[in-house]
Design a protein that fits this description.
About 70% of the residues lie in helices and about 0% in strands. It is mainly α and about 280 residues long. The chain starts with about 20 loop residues before the first helix and ends with a helix.
Length: about 280
């Protein structure tokens, strides 16, 4: 009787799932991991080194709560204001012909190209107490520079193109026959706008508002110049993070950054849900 040699231990089947993944998918996953996912993971890992009690104490400190309020509240108001006036600007650019239209259209993109520090310097000069607009508001007791109102003006300035550029193409493709048909059926101009034109525009407006809000939350260069950066007055969260870094408080900066990241992600999910709702009922 012969004894067969013992069988080698079974090895796990090689993972060949990567073979079935196309190269565009591989490149996409690699690029997103390097540019987006790994930096976010690094922030979360750094923040996780703090105990839950210490994390909560830093995240809910009075100065941090005040900075969240100024940052998210002002950014939301700025995005909503741009949702109204950005739509109006897009309407004028699409529906009207006037001299220097191309120049005005190109100027809309100026906040994209202008360095944010230059934008802050310009706004602080114009809205300062002795500036062109600030001097007109000063007699009424309205101060813009070095106040929360100045933070709002800076956020409106840098987020305006997002609404205009998202609404403009939708307005350009909208058929004028729909308006004429509504007028022939007896609808007024306001009823035509409210019931015929606005519903298809809502998803584009919400998209622009979401993008503008995200841009305003992360703004630093212009707001740090036009604001006084005083806690409980006009200090925004990005500046608070920088102040913590200057104090070598890396843990505090990371915790506040994590909170900023979480709230921004949550608000973007809500806005995306609103966009999907708008597309369904438009």
């Amino acid at each position: 009787m012969t004894v067969s040699p013992p069988l080698p231990p079974t090895q796990p089947a090689p993972r060949r799932w990567l073979v079935y993944v196309s190269w565009p998918w591989r490149i996409t996953l690699g690029y997103l991991s390097l540019i987006l996912l790994l930096p976010i993971a690094a922030v979360l890992v750094k923040a996780s080194t703090e105990s839950p009690a210490q994390f909560w104490a830093i995240a809910t400190s009075p100065v941090a709560l005040s900075a969240y309020n100024v940052t998210f509240g002002t950014a939301l108001i700025a995005a909503l204001i741009n949702g109204i006036f950005g739509t109006l600007v897009a309407w004028v650019l699409v529906r009207y012909q006037f001299p220097l239209k191309r120049l005005v259209d190109a100027t809309i993109d100026l906040p994209f190209a202008l360095p944010t520090s230059v934008a802050g310097l310009t706004l602080a000069t114009v809205y300062g107490q002795h500036g062109w607009i600030g001097s007109l508001l000063a007699p009424f007791g309205v101060e813009v520079s070095f106040t929360r109102l100045g933070v709002g003006v800076a956020m409106i300035f840098i987020s305006l193109p997002f609404v205009v550029r998202t609404v403009q193409p939708v307005l350009s493709e909208m058929e004028r026959e729909l308006e004429e048909a509504a007028w022939c059926m007896g609808a007024s101009h306001w009823q035509t706008f409210w019931r015929v034109l606005l519903p298809p525009l809502i998803p584009a407006i919400l998209t622009g508002v979401a993008q503008g809000f995200s841009r305003a939350v992360g703004e630093y260069g212009s707001t740090v110049i036009i604001a006084s950066n005083i806690p409980f007055k006009d200090l925004i969260a990005p500046v608070l993070i920088f102040q913590r870094l200057e104090q070598y408080d890396y843990a505090g900066a990371t915790v506040i950054g994590t909170v900023l990241l979480g709230i921004s992600l949550l608000m973007l999910l809500v806005i995306n849900w609103l966009q999907a709702w708008g597309r369904r009922y438009a």
